[in-house]
TrEMBL record:
<dbReference type="InterPro" id="IPR002347">
    <property type="entry name" value="SDR_fam"/>
</dbReference>
<protein>
    <recommendedName>
        <fullName>Diacetyl reductase [(S)-acetoin forming]</fullName>
        <ecNumber>1.1.1.304</ecNumber>
    </recommendedName>
</protein>
<dbReference type="InterPro" id="IPR036291">
    <property type="entry name" value="NAD(P)-bd_dom_sf"/>
</dbReference>
<comment type="function">
    <text>Catalyzes the irreversible reduction of 2,3-butanediol to (S)-acetoin in the presence of NADH.</text>
</comment>
<feature type="region of interest" description="Disordered">
    <location>
        <begin position="1"/>
        <end position="33"/>
    </location>
</feature>
<dbReference type="InterPro" id="IPR020904">
    <property type="entry name" value="Sc_DH/Rdtase_CS"/>
</dbReference>
<dbReference type="GO" id="GO:0052588">
    <property type="term" value="F:diacetyl reductase ((S)-acetoin forming) (NAD+) activity"/>
</dbReference>
<keyword id="KW-0560">Oxidoreductase</keyword>
<dbReference type="GO" id="GO:0008206">
    <property type="term" value="P:bile acid metabolic process"/>
</dbReference>
<dbReference type="Pfam" id="PF13561">
    <property type="entry name" value="adh_short_C2"/>
</dbReference>
<comment type="similarity">
    <text>Belongs to the short-chain dehydrogenases/reductases (SDR) family.</text>
</comment>
Length: 292
């Protein structure tokens, strides 16, 4: 990593702020998340492949989508309604000489998920990589404060949507293709303020380990990433400002993670470099899991 990259990742820190709508807008954040590092120079690891990234307009999804483009993949992005963020990501991706399509809508709707996959195959000709990344969360002090409406919405977006995308994608995938899922450190250590969110992330871990066994005979690999505290639009859109003040600083590395910290692991899981990996999770949390 270059000295400039190190300074970029460590600069400023989190400034407490709020946004009034999930999943949040990246361009309104101060500082904006770091989604790209000069040290990541593509080498054709994904040349000619087609990737669909949910939540790819911003945060970890944006970083991964751009990282895949640098490696030669054409990219499709599913997102809710953050059109400006999505257009900015699309423009950056296309600077790499690959194609990018945007697909706006509510992933809690099963028909939308299936339609997106069909559109991707129609417009790009195939689908090799599916990254199930989009998520929502709401802070509640106690499990008794979680309404049935919140519980359902959180599972619809975080868990059921990725099941829908998985079901839609598998018939179009072949040996060597990959499914990748974003879980969370919370699935492994718990979080008393995000119980329903944490539960969905635990469900994702179990889902990945199960589907990986099912698809192994077809040569389709299924893996995931479990991020720790990462500076994305979801943080100002959901966490109170007092919780943001210490966000990520308790990690052994002393800072919150950035979307850019995830690019290389997601590239690894999408490429032949992980040909002997399935049913696994990569933990990106500044050492918090090991110190908990």
């Amino acid at each position: 990593m270059s000295e400039l990259d190190k300074q970029t990742l460590m600069s400023d820190g989190v400034k407490p702020q709020t946004q009034d709508k999930q999943p949040g807008v990246e361009s309104e954040m101060t500082p904006e998340p770091v989604y790209e590092l000069e040290s990541h120079v593509g080498s054709g690891k994904l040349k000619g492949k087609v990737a669909l990234v949910t939540g790819g307009d911003s945060g970890i999804g944006r970083a991964v989508a751009i990282g895949y483009a640098k490696e030669g993949a054409h990219v499709a992005i599913a997102y809710l309604d953050e059109h400006d963020d999505a257009e900015k990501t699309k423009q950056r991706i296309e600077q790499e000489g690959v194609n990018c399509t945007l697909h706006a809508g509510d992933i809690a709707d099963e028909s939308f998920c299936f339609n997106v996959v069909e559109e991707v195959v129609e417009k790009h000709g195939k689908l090799n990589i599916l990254v199930n990344n989009a998520a929502r969360q709401e802070v509640k002090e106690s499990v008794v404060d979680i309404s049935a409406e919140q519980l359902k919405r959180t599972f619809d977006v975080n868990f059921f949507a990725m099941v829908y995308f998985t079901k839609a994608a598998i018939p179009h995938m072949e040996a060597g293709d990959t499914l990748i899922y974003t879980s969370s450190i919370n699935a492994y250590v718990g979080n008393p303020s995000l119980i329903d969110y944490t539960s969905t992330k635990g469900a994702i871990v179990a889902f990945v380990r199960s589907v990986a066994q099912e698809l192994a005979s077809k040569g389709i690999r299924v893996n995931g990433v479990a991020p720790g505290p990462i500076w994305t639009p979801l943080i100002p859109a959901t966490l109170p400002e007092d919780m943001q003040e210490s966000f990520g600083v308790s990690s052994p590395l002393g800072r919150p993670g950035q979307p850019a910290d995830h690019v290389e692991p997601y590239v690894l899981l999408a490429s032949e470099g992980s040909a002997y990996m399935t049913g696994q999770f990569i933990h990106i949390n500044g050492g918090m899991y090991t110190s908990s």
